[in-house]
Amino acid sequence: MTLYWIPGLIAIVIVGLADWVIFKRLKRAGCTWARVHAGAALCLYALLAVAVSLPSHRCTNAVLVAQMWMLYIFFAMSVCKLLTLGIYSLSWIGRQPRWLKTALRVVAAAAGVAAVVECGVGAWVTPYRMQVTRVTIESDRLPAAFDGYRVVQFSDLHLGTYNGDTRFVSRCVDQINSLHPDLLCFTGDIENRLNSEVLPFKHILSRLHARDGVWAVRGNHDVGGYYDWPTKHITDYQGGIALTRMEESLGWTMLNNRYRYLSRGGSKIALIGLDGYGGLPIPPDGNLGKVYPAHRDSVFKIVLHHSPELWNDAFNRATRVDLILCGHTHAMQMIFDIMGHRFSPAMFQYPQWGGLYTDGGGQRHIYVNTGLGQVGIPARLGSAVPEITLITLRRKP
């Protein structure tokens, strides 16, 4: 059993204790709802048992999507119960005036209803919205010929989660094209497990265009490791040659540990793609020294990499990169705006989890795109709206 199971088991125990408390309180009050609650809770645990028993590394895409929905239903109902019980239990503390007990119980009920509504909106509304985040980055290293250069980034499509429904992806393509990018970059995770997930979307994604082309790198879900292939050779083929052929059939260019120069009026910038996926060891320079040996030259550099884990003090000391574009975090598909500040559970795992971060006296930048698709749970909660990023490069006077 891996360590990843431990938080899940702890959460299930907490939910189980909450259900036991609710059942005992209802039964003590002589309420007929005690049996209703017990029956509903048992159904949810049965749903969870079915979900975790499914062979997610071997099943069809439709079964995987069904598993995501089962897990989400259990997760959503558990959050609603815990929130309601947490507030309601405050009315049990000490001797309180009747009005305070009543107020706490009303607030608990309202919070529970609000949580149910948010979970519903997060599943059926928010994932099908989209936002264009506009960012301007200034640099005195940018050639004058590239002043006003428009870079559009999108990431983490996870096409399998749509189970062949192309409507939202088609809207995303139309939105991206309407931005008239000079450069279009995809920073990984086009699929959940299988290249075949992309087939219903090929005619749509092939409509993407930009003046200097569409460029892509691989994400952790693209390299074949989330499906039980018979041999490592087949796994490597699916995540290597097969994936590259499939994405290049869309008219995209894969930058798997490669670089290209983009030219304007006799000047150039470097576009560099670095492989490397969330959780895997990354050398201090992110392999940049092998991919682009002159990595400390004066050329303005844009690096495409799937995970923001590349951005650290060691990398910034070892290299001279101006802009890194990455994705991977999804902001864990949860962002909550509180008093003008954004919070996400992703912040506990990734120091850079979403948006623009700057270091080195404003000379080095990383943009973490929070993705267009969903995986794990088929929902986006709070303000975790699917994102397209438009970055305008400006030469600093």
UniProtKB/TrEMBL annotation:
SUPFAM superfamilies xrefs: Metallo-dependent phosphatases
Keywords: Hydrolase, Membrane, Metal-binding, Transmembrane, Transmembrane helix
One MF term in the entry's GO annotations: metal ion binding
InterPro entries with a match to the protein in the record: Calcineurin-like_PHP (IPR004843), Metallo-depent_PP-like (IPR029052), Metallophosphoesterase_sf (IPR051158)
All residue ranges annotated as the Calcineurin-like phosphoesterase domain in the record: 150-331
GO biological-process terms attached to the record: lipid A biosynthetic process
GO cellular component: membrane
Transmembrane annotation, as ranges: 6-23, 35-57, 69-90, 102-125
Top-level taxon of origin: Bacteria
PANTHER family xref list: PHOSPHODIESTERASE YAEI, TRANSMEMBRANE PROTEIN WITH METALLOPHOSPHOESTERASE DOMAIN-RELATED
Protein name: Metallophosphoesterase
Annotated source species: Sodaliphilus pleomorphus
